[in-house]
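Why do we care about 3D structure at all? Because function follows from shape, and shape follows, mostly, from sequence. That is the central idea of this module. The next example makes it concrete: a single protein chain, its amino acid sequence, and then its structure expressed as tokens.
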Amino acid sequence: MANESRRQQSRGAKSGRSPWREQAESYLSHHHKVARDSARRLWQSPLASMMTWTVMGVALALPVALMLLLASLEGVSAGWESSARVTAYLGDSVSIDEAQALKATVTDDSRVAEVELIDRDTALEEFRASSGLEDALDYLDENPLPHTLLVTPSESSRTADGVEMLLTVVEGLDGVERVQVDLGWLQRLNAMTDLLGRAVWALAMLLAAAVVLVIGNTVRLAIENRRDEILVAKLVGGTDAFVRRPFLYTGAWFGLGGGIVALILLQLSLWWLSGPVERLAGLYRSEFSLNGLSLDGALALIIAAMLLGWLGAWLAVKRHLDDIEPGEIAGG
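And the structure:
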């Protein structure tokens, strides 16, 4: 009696569960089973799977590596922009009092953070100490150097466009004979990095398309190898979604493996190049360094790789699954 009562309670508990919950559990259970079976099939052919992962890894790592290089270059150019100063050479007839007045005028500009006045006597002494021409300078009848203003732009103006606007303002002041700022090479560098950035994005899209095609071809071969299994599944009433699901998981697993291979290749490349790059930057007294992917970037790369793998599998299944119909069995 006790056993019978427990069985009735168990049947009552099962019947009390809502149908949508049972459907959800069955749906998730089938997804878990299909995902595990797809991964097992990949491991059963490790050489072919590794070759596909390597192709995907190389195709994904190349544009990402170029993007990291461009990001490092942009960081260095931004640092040089922030340290750029406008040098204004005053006319020979400008007195020290007039130079002080010009300094005050430039300081009042909101685009200016700091102005330093170097009078001609201080400039001559600095040149005498740094050039080693003390004896030759003693023969000069008068000081040939002008008063100089060193203008440091504000934070909001420390860009190529901001410095050019400030340059125009300083050039228009009375008493300023010549203004110098060496931003031409920086503008050329920014133009080159912009061009390279566009080229990298074009290359990334081409390689992404190549990844989709590689995965699509691999999944197409898997569909052909499992053709009889697909026919039987359709014959017993399997829906297209049911038949498509294992191949979509196969594409996602290929993407996951390709993303991991790409991360490994990136880290190995950075480790191999970091030493020579640091030595070269040290020779130029630059703080340039190669930066790797952050945790968010690594996760984004893996997710993007899985989406590309899923897309390639979906396209292959969409293209070839409709060609397989249960009528082939009857015709055979």
